[in-house]
C-alpha cells in the first residue's frame, strides 16, 4: 500500500480526474490518504482515513516513505480555530508561511506556554509557529474506542454528546458548499461527519447509516443531543429542545442554521420533519440493543 499526506490547506476530492468535476469531499492538511490508483497524469485516486474515495490533484499531496515515517513519529495536535496562520517566528509580526483550517493536523515540536505559542512541523518538513489557543490534543479513533466503548460512563457519554454538538455549532453561518467540509463552506453530511471527526470519531461521510460505521438506528423517541436525523438526501444533528443544526442550500438559509421540529416555533421547517427516515446514534440508549 502507498500513502500520501495532504499538503494543501484543503485537498479537493473529485468524482473524476478533472478539476471541473464534481466536488465530493474535502480533506484537511496533514491527513493521511491511501493511494489506490495512479493512472492519470495529474491525479491520484485515493481513500481517506474515513474510507471515502475520490480523485485528488497531485499538487495537493506529498509522498515519500521517509517523510511519512517521520510524520507518524511526531505527536499531533488538531487545529480548532476556523482559520489559523502558521508564522515563521513566535510573534504576530512573523511572516505567514501558510494558513490552516479547523481539522488540520500539525506535528508538535515544542511549547512556549508563557507566551502562548507552539512550535510545529509541517508535513513538507518546514517548521513554524501557531497560537496555542488555536490547537487541541488530537484524539484518534482508536483512542476513542478504547476510552469510550471499553471504559465509557454516563458522564463520558454526556461530555462527548456536548462536545460533538459544540463542534457542529461552531460552523453556524458557514455557507453551503456541495462536498465542502470546512469553515469556507460545508454540506450537510460534511457538517455532521466533521463534528464527530473533531472528537475522534469516524462516521460515514454521506447522509446514510452504513454497516461498518458506528452510527446505528434508534427509535425517534430515544433521540438525544448529538444524534443524527436522516432524510432523503439530507442529514442533520439534533441539539436538544426540539431543535437541530444542519447545512442547507434552501434559499434564505444558504448554509449552517438551526431549525425546529416544533410547528409552533418560528424556525420550524415544515418540509423536513415529515420526511425523517431514521434517527442514528453513536450511543446505546435505554431500551436499544
UniProtKB/TrEMBL annotation:
GO biological process per UniProt: proteolysis
A Pfam family this chain is assigned to: NLPC_P60
InterPro entries the UniProt entry points to: NLP_P60_dom (IPR000064), Papain-like_cys_pep_sf (IPR038765), Peptidase_C40 (IPR051202), SH3_16 (IPR041382)
Molecular function, one GO term: cysteine-type peptidase activity
Residue ranges of coiled coil: none
Range of residues in the leader sequence: none
Keywords: Hydrolase, Protease, Thiol protease
Domain of life: Bacteria
PANTHER family from the UniProt entry: MUREIN DD-ENDOPEPTIDASE MEPH-RELATED (PTHR47053)
Membership in a protein family: Belongs to the peptidase C40 family.
Name of this protein: Uncharacterized protein
Native source species: Anaerocolumna cellulosilytica
Lineage summary: Bacteria, Bacillati, Bacillota, Clostridia, Lachnospirales
Amino acid at each position: 500500500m502507498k500513502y500520501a499526506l495532504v499538503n494543501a490547506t484543503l485537498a479537493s476530492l473529485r468524482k473524476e480526474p478533472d478539476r471541473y468535476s464534481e466536488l465530493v469531499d474535502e480533506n484537511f492538511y496533514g491527513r493521511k490518504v491511501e493511494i489506490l490508483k495512479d493512472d492519470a497524469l495529474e491525479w491520484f485516486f485515493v481513500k481517506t482515513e474515513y474510507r471515502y474515495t475520490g480523485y485528488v490533484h497531485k499538487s495537493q499531496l506529498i509522498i515519500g516513505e521517509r517523510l511519512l515515517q517521520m510524520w507518524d513519529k511526531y505527536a499531533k495536535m488538531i487545529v480548532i480555530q476556523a482559520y489559523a496562520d502558521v508564522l515563521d517566528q513566535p510573534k504576530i509580526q512573523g511572516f505567514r508561511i501558510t494558513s490552516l483550517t479547523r481539522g488540520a493536523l500539525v506535528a508538535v515540536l515544542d511549547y512556549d506556554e508563557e507566551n502562548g505559542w507552539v512550535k510545529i512541523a509541517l508535513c513538507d518538513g518546514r517548521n513554524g509557529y501557531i497560537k496555542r489557543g488555536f490547537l487541541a490534543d488530537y484524539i484518534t479513533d482508536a483512542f476513542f474506542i478504547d476510552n469510550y466503548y471499553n471504559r465509557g460512563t454516563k458522564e463520558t457519554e454526556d461530555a462527548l454528546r456536548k462536545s460533538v454538538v459544540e463542534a457542529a455549532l461552531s460552523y453556524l453561518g458557514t455557507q453551503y458548499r456541495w462536498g465542502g467540509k470546512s469553515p469556507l463552506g460545508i454540506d450537510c453530511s460534511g457538517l455532521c461527519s466533521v463534528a464527530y471527526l473533531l472528537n475522534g470519531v469516524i462516521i460515514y461521510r454521506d447522509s446514510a447509516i452504513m454497516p461498518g460505521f458506528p452510527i446505528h438506528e434508534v427509535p425517534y423517541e430515544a433521540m438525544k443531543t448529538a444524534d443524527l436525523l436522516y432524510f432523503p438526501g439530507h442529514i442533520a444533528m439534533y441539539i436538544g429542545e426540539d431543535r437541530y443544526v444542519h447545512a442547507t442550500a434552501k434559499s434564505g438559509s444558504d448554509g449552517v442554521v438551526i431549525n425546529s421540529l416544533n410547528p409552533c416555533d418560528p424556525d420550524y421547517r415544515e418540509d423536513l420533519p415529515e420526511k425523517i427516515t431514521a434517527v442514528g446514534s453513536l450511543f446505546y440508549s435505554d431500551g436499544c440493543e
